[in-house]
Amino acid sequence: MHDFSKISVIGLGYIGLPTAAVIASRGVQVHGVDISEHAVDTINQGKIHIVEPDLDMLVQAAVSTGKLKASTEAEAADVFMIAVPTPFQGDKKPDLSFIEAAINTIAPHVSKGNLIILESTSPVGTTEKIAQWLAELRPDLRMPHANTDQSDVFIAHCPERVLPGRVLQELVSNDRIIGGISPRCAQKAMELYQLFVRGECLLTDARTAEMAKLTENSFRDVNIAFANELSMVCDHLKINVWELIQLANRHPRVNILSPGPGVGGHCIAVDPWFIVDSAPEQAKMIRLAREVNDAKPHYVMDRVKKAADEFKKPVIACLGLAFKADIDDLRESPALDIAKALTEQRIGEVLWVEPNIRSLPKAYQAFTPQLVTLHEALERAHILVVLVDHKQFKSLKPGDVAAKVVIDTRGLFG
Ligand code: SAJ
Question: pLDDT (tens digit, 9 = 90+) per residue, 222-276?
Fold first, then answer.
């Protein structure tokens, strides 16, 4: 038997909401907190304000059984899980203000024996900072950084590592890294994760756990940068990069990732900067990989401009706007940046194709884009720019595009 009868999840976004719903589905009372009234109201109606497969059913069940309740106010609980954003500021320095605000919100409600878990991806040292902030706000409680064996509260970092689009499976099946401020903290946090995680729980200290998460996403970023650089080298040398990668990957110890129009999403393009910020002298390759990936959309734009120069009144169709295949998430998407820039710079008549959305969010309507169907794009465009490998585009036959100039950043026609 565990001694967690009520869990509070602070931040009900892409990580917090699925986590809250999964814990509630195990029969534990969950109190979700978010600053957005819209999010809170939507959840309390048993609905969701984000897109993730099957999450709607899970939230609906959790709310209708009374196990999940959302609020803009914090209240007492046995566990506080923090899942708020950690973006970077203009100078690529991490912005911890959401975490600090979360600590300020929960501080009056924390009591002896409570467990506080940071799930947000964070720079090394953030979990220790939480302990210090809380120590200042609650001098009556003994914190684990100063009282290793006898703290009143337990604090740990357990970074989320789920893949958008597969969150509900990965929340349960992934192994978890659990970094305690002290070994007792890690042990206590593990008891919580064992309520719903089928993967292994691996215990370490908080700093190593923080670095592990940043390392995972930087590893991927560096590998994607390698693929993106190869694609530019191959264009220069007039070699088909897709064929090249397929051949090289037949070596038993080579596994090159796929080039694309750049790296999108809110994690891989952000987290490596946290390493660069804390060790700028040492993290040379990690920084360079970020720069290579950030430069890729400009390279694609230049290719499109060159192709457009060949037409008097070029019609250009951008196939895909989301940040990766078969999702509707447009945030931090290089595909969207490319479509926006081509439209703004009036490189021609630009058609936007995104089969996963019905209309564009208001912010993008200022560009007066033409959101059209794939069918219309195929009828009208001279140039097709493949930006996302959505399944609808994968089923195109070479004959469908034979008469077009195709700039294929995803190797669909490789
Ligand atoms: N991409 C490529 N080529 C590839 C693979 C990806 O260009 O071969 C691009 C995608 O098109 C996309 C971006 O990279 O624009 C990121 O996509 P992704 O699928 O690699 O990763 P995310 O951002 O959806 O989720 C990542 C995951 N991290 C790792 O795989 C190491 C996920 O497990 C993390 O939980 C998530 O970041 C996070 O929240 O940190």
Answer: 999 999 999 999 999 999 999 999 999 999 999 999 999 999 998 999 999 999 9
Q: Are 100 and 139 within 8 A, CB to CB?
A: no
State the Cα–Cα distance between residues 414 and 408, nearest whole angstrom.
Answer: 8
Catalytic residue check, 296: no
How many other C-beta atoms lie within 10 A of the C-beta of residue 112? 10
Known active-site residue 213 = yes
Nearest-atom index, ligand 1, CA of 323: 15
Token pair for 22: 């999964």
Nearest to 8 by CA among 68, 89, 57, 48: 68
| Pocket lining: 260 vs ligand 1, CB cutoff 6 Å | yes
Is 360 buried (19+), middle (13-18) or exposed (0-12) by CB count in 10 A?
middle
Confidence class for position 2, pLDDT limits 50, 70, 90: low
Categorize the per-residue pLDDT at 368 as very low, low, confident or very high, splitting at 50, 70 and 90.
confident
Three-class SS state of 118: strand
Rounded to an integer, what distance in angstroms lies between the CA atom of residue 337 and that of residue 301? 10
Candidate from 122, 226, 263 with most ligand 1 atoms within 8 A of CB, to mutate: 263
Q: Look at residue 275 in the predicted model and tell me its pLDDT.
A: 98
Contact 208, 125 (CB under 8 A): no
Catalytic member of 158, 185, 201, 267: 267
Question: Among the options 213, 296, 324, 340, which is catalytic?
Answer: 213
Residues 345, 390: Cα–Cα separation, whole Å: 26
Please tell me the number of Cα atoms within 13 Å of 100 on its side-chain side.
8
Taking only the tens place, the pLDDT of each residue in 281-326 is 999 999 999 999 999 999 999 999 999 999 999 999 999 999 999 8
Which has the closest alpha carbon to 131: 106, 109, 154, 97?
A: 154
* Closest alpha carbon to 187 in 213, 214, 148: 148
**Contact status, residue 214 vs residue 272, Cβ threshold 8 Å:** yes
CA distance 248 to 103: 49
Token digits of residue 377: 């794009």
